[in-house]
C-alpha cells in the first residue's frame, strides 16, 4: 500500500471511530440489557463527586502540611473537569465544576481520625457501593459507600453545608480535644455543579458499620416518640418478601422490643461520659434533630444470613486504562464522549454479581478509637464487665440541623395535637437534655425502665 493510500485509510478509520463514539454518546436508548432506573443520573453524579475528590485531595496532599490558621476555615478551591478528571482546555466544554471547602482543615481532621492519605484515595475510586436500604438519617439525601465500605459520600442541603462551614472551627477543636468523639467523623466538604445544572453539596464521612459483619438490626434513636415507629410488617422487597437485616427502626420499636444498650459499669461510664461531652457541644451550637444510630451484630448468628449480599449493590463502569489516559486533545474528547456513554448506560449490580469484594477485616486505624476497638465496634458486657454476644456499632449522626424558624414552626404545629415531650422538634438545649435522659435510661444491664 502506498503512503498516500495508507494516510487515506488511517483518516477514514479515525473519522469512522469518531462517528461511532459520537453516536454512542448521543444515543439515549439502551443497546444491551434493560433500561436503567430513573435515579440513574445520581449514579453518574456520584462518579463525578469521586473524580473531583481524588483530584482535589491529591493536590492538597502534595503540599507541605502547616499549622491550621483561622483563615483556613473559610478558604475554598474551585476546579473544572471533563468526565475523565482532566482539566479542560479553554475551548473545551467542562462536564462538571468542583469546589473543595477548607481543604487544609479537612486534611488535618483526616490525620486526627488516623485516615491514611493513600488509603483514602484508593478507597474513593470510580467503583462505589449503593444500598437498597437508603439513608438511615434525613430523607432527601443520597448515600454512596466507597468501594471498601469504609467511607460514606452523602449529599446534603445547602443549609446543612452552610451550617457545617459555620461550626467547623468548633467541631475541629472538639475533635482535637476528644479523639473518641461519637459525633460523625467528617473528612471533606465539597460541591459539584453541572453545566446549566444545580449545585449539589456533599460530605465525606465515616461509615459506622463494618465491611466484614452483617448488621442484624438497626435503630435510630432521638429520645422522642411522636412518629417514631417503623411498621416492619409493611416494609418488604418488590417480591413481597420481608427485607433481611438492617431496616432502620426507631424509638418506639426499641421500647416495644425491650431493648437495652447492654454495658457493664466500666463501659457504661466511658460511653455516657463521651456522649455527654458531645451533646454539650451540640447544645452550645444550637443543633438538634440528631440521633444515636445503633447497628447490632449478634455474634451467635454471625454472617450466616449473608445480609450484605442482599442489600448492597456496586456501581462499576467497565473501563480500561486507555479509556482514561491520553495526552492528545482530539483523542481526549473522543474518550470523554465514550466515558459519558458508559456512565449513562451502567446500572448497579448486586454485590455477589460484581467483581467487588468487601474486606474481611476492619482497618487497623479504626481500632485506635475506644468505641471501635472491638473488631470495629463496642462489645456488650454484663454487670461484671464480661463480654456478651452482641457487638454494637454506634455514633451520633445527622448533626447539621439548627433550631431555626422552620423548626420553631414545626414545634408549634406538631405541639398542637401532641404532648411537647413526644415531638422531635424542640429547642436545642431541651432536645439535648431529653436525648441524654433517654440514652441513660436504656443503657446498662439493669432491668428495663418501662417509662418512655
Automatic annotation (TrEMBL):
Keyword annotations: ATP-binding, Kinase, Nucleotide-binding, Phosphoprotein, Transferase
Catalytic activity, EC: 2.7.1.68
GO BP field: ascospore-type prospore assembly; cortical actin cytoskeleton organization; phosphatidylinositol phosphate biosynthetic process
Domain of life: Eukaryota
Keyword Nucleus: no
KW Kinase (keyword) present: yes
Any Gene Ontology CC annotation: plasma membrane
GO MF entries: 1-phosphatidylinositol-4-phosphate 5-kinase activity; ATP binding; phosphatidylinositol-3-phosphate binding; phosphatidylinositol-4-phosphate binding
Catalytic activity annotation: a 1,2-diacyl-sn-glycero-3-phospho-(1D-myo-inositol 4-phosphate) + ATP = a 1,2-diacyl-sn-glycero-3-phospho-(1D-myo-inositol-4,5-bisphosphate) + ADP + H(+)
Pfam families the UniProt entry points to: PIP5K (PF01504)
Residue intervals of the PIPK domain: 41-443
Protein known as: 1-phosphatidylinositol-4-phosphate 5-kinase
Organism of this sequence: Tortispora caseinolytica NRRL Y-17796
